[in-house]
Amino acid sequence: MSPHIPVLLKEVLAMLSPEDGGVYFDGTFGGGGYTRAILEAANCRVIASDRDSFVEKFADEVKSLYPSRFDFFHEKFGNIKSICGSEQKLDGVILDLGVSTFQLTDPERGFSFNLSGPVDMGMGLCDQTAMDVIRKYKKQDLANIIYEFGEEHFSRRIAENIKKNIGKIHTTEDLARVIRSCVKKTGKTDPATKTFQSLRIFVNKELDELKKVLRDSVDLLNPGGKIIAVSFHSLEDRIVKLFFRELIKTRPEFREKSFTLLTKKPIIPSAEEIAVNPKSRSAKLRGISVVC
Question: Rounded to two decimals, what is the model's pTM?
């Protein structure tokens, strides 16, 4: 299995600037790359979560190295308040919103249209699979999901073809074949890309979880505390960008705190990082900090 490489690690660490005595929340633990770097940078504490039970073995490794400074929870990051406790204040919240290498390269998880596996796409703690969605939802509803969460202009055509060939779809390879049969390839992007993205986002309620963790993080931040997010597609990045903009404008519910942007424009990976880790090419890093 390919190792998971944390994206924009140096940039995230420089922006976060961990300090001795600080408490930080890593909402997407994954292979533990960000958490390890934070714990190595300062005598601080990290509270981490991940919805994927697969990463618990990596969390156990970090726990053995930093038994008194690290805690892990198998939870969605949207539950940040229950994970950290309402009285726990944070000096930073870090969110890497991408799909992990562990998920993408395991055919049994059903994330990749290049690997044959069950049509699942669940990151963990889900109440349905992608197969459930394409079977149960009506053609129009499926088209809406593909359009809204995949920004796919051929959503109606794809939904119709999926429903028409539902009896032939048993694996991710089958699903990709059905999509490709009704949409021509343009450029380097596989015709199945946007539909697979839409189903994954919908199954995992990714955008709802993101909105929730951003909103609830604000209440837990100390003065000087930061929210740092690395997004990988326009839907996520738009949510982060607009939420930060609203904080700067000081929405009524946040009047007790003021904020400053740490990134007027998103930071993107260098050519050197993309060469080493091609999956990082679409990453965008944004950050915001509590002024007082």
Answer: 0.95
Encoding tokens for residue 253?
Answer: 């519910």
Q: Do 154 and 171 reside in the same domain of the chain?
A: yes
pLDDT per residue as tens digits for the range 208-245: 999 999 999 999 999 999 999 999 999 999 999 999 99
Instruction: Please count the other Cβ atoms lying within 10 Å of the Cβ belonging to residue 190.
Output: 16
Range of the domain at 155: 127-204
Helix and strand element counts for the chain (H, E): 13, 7
Q: Is 198 helix (H, G, I), strand (E, B) or coil?
A: helix
Does 222 lie in the same domain as 192? no
Nearest to 39 by CA among 30, 52, 48: 48
Backbone angles phi, psi at 30, to 5 degrees: 55, -125
Helices 56-65 + 33-41 axis angle, to 10: 10
DSSP 184: -
One domain, residues 90 and 74? yes
Decide which of 180, 204, 228 is a domain's last residue. Answer: 204
Q: What are phi and psi of 180, to 5 degrees?
A: -65, -25
